[in-house]
Design a protein that fits this description.
Elements (H helix, E strand, L loop, with lengths): L5 E6 L8 H10 L4 E5 L7 H7 L3 E5 L6 H10 L5 E6 L2 E5 L3 H8 L4 E2 L7 E2 L4 E7 L9 E4 L8 E4 L16 E4 H7 L9 H14 L4 E11 L12 H11 L2 E3 L2 E3 L5 H7 L4 H17 L8 H7 L19
Parallel strand pairs: 1-2, 1-4, 2-3, 8-12
Antiparallel strand pairs: 4-11, 5-12, 6-7, 8-11, 9-10, 13-14
Length: about 325
């Protein structure tokens, strides 16, 4: 049988989750390749598992790296068009085999375009329905919320096909490899999983990509779902400068100098540090200026939320642990 065009990346959350059953399920599913990213300390059963499941490639990390860096690394090791990223504490509930998944996901979809044009291309990322250990559907679709609220995003339940998500919750989803690479993947300079995901999602929507849910894929956690740490800090500074501060005009974006005084006052860094951060962000925006398709207000309006960058100021958010 030929290639299905879909591979899997398994991220590991800890030793307490037995991976043998998961690899058995993946063998039956028929993924082209499976990569298991192994952070330190290396688990004792890898040699045994590699013998039992020769289709699994174990990538051993010398040191702990962020969620986004793990996904970037795994994607660079696979060349199939679609890549399913999931954790070792997730189990398949519904979805069928790899061929069936690809058949459902690779049909032409209407990609959102703020100009109103329809483009029959695949979306950047398709997120599955995720359930609790008791098989209760979790509100894993993320939507931006108005400024000065306790959370930066709110959770929505994937109640129907094609609902949009700001980013893939927990990094879980089926990624279009070509689009992912063209996007630049996750920002490895950010260390917070939450702000990596927020940056990836905002950047995707600003650049005209789509992240949406499907009812055809269902997973369930074996343990309590992870809690997002939305704490602000240096990672939020970079997120703000890359995604919220730029101004979009017609066909390009720029980060205006008038944003700097307020940023410097609110950053709580030294003037020199704030200056360096701002102009590094300004250079990044300039390099990618023609990739913008809309501004943050347009993104917020996708969820019927009134939001602007003028009052979404850095470091004034309350956080929820």
């Amino acid at each position: 049988m030929g290639s299905a065009g879909l591979s899997a990346v398994v991220l590991n959350r800890g030793r307490r989750f037995a991976r043998r059953n998961m690899f058995e399920d993946m063998k039956k599913t028929g993924f082209d390749f499976v990569i298991s990213v192994e952070p330190p300390p290396i688990q004792y059963d890898i040699e045994e598992l590699s013998t039992q499941f020769p289709f699994v490639r174990f990538v051993l990390l010398a040191e702990n790296i962020s969620l986004g860096e793990q996904i970037n690394l795994a994607v660079s090791e696979i060349d199939t068009p679609l890549i399913f990223v999931l954790w070792n504490d997730l189990r398949f509930v519904a979805g069928g085999g790899a061929y069936r998944m690809v058949e459902r996901l690779s049909y032409p979809t209407v990609k959102w375009d703020p100009s109103g044009e329809k483009n029959p291309l695949r979306r950047l990322c398709t997120v599955p329905v995720i359930q609790s250990p008791r098989f209760e559907t979790l509100p894993t679709l993320r939507a931006p919320v108005p400024p000065r609220k306790k959370e930066h995003t709110c959770g929505l339940s994937p109640s129907q096909e094609g609902l949009r998500s700001l980013y893939p919750f927990d990094g879980v989803g089926v990624y279009d490899r070509e689009r992912f690479i063209r996007m630049g993947g996750f920002d490895g300079t950010l260390k917070s999983c939450y702000w990596q995901l927020m940056d990836f999602g905002f950047r995707a929507h600003l650049w005209g990509e789509e992240i949406s849910a499907t009812q055809t894929l269902k997973l369930s956690y074996e343990a309590t779902p992870p809690i997002e740490d939305t704490s602000t800090g240096a990672d939020y500074h970079r997120f703000y400068l890359k995604n919220l501060a730029p101004v979009f005009r017609k066909d390009f974006a720029h980060l205006p100098l008038r944003r700097f005084p307020r940023y410097a006052l609110q950053s709580r860094d030294s003037f020199l540090a704030a200056y360096e951060e701002f102009f590094e962000g300004r250079q990044w925006v300039h390099t990618n200026r023609f990739r913008w398709k809309c501004d943050p207000r347009t993104i917020a309006n996708l969820w019927n939320i009134s939001n602007t960058t003028e009052n979404f100021s850095p470091l004034e958010q309350e956080t929820s642990a």
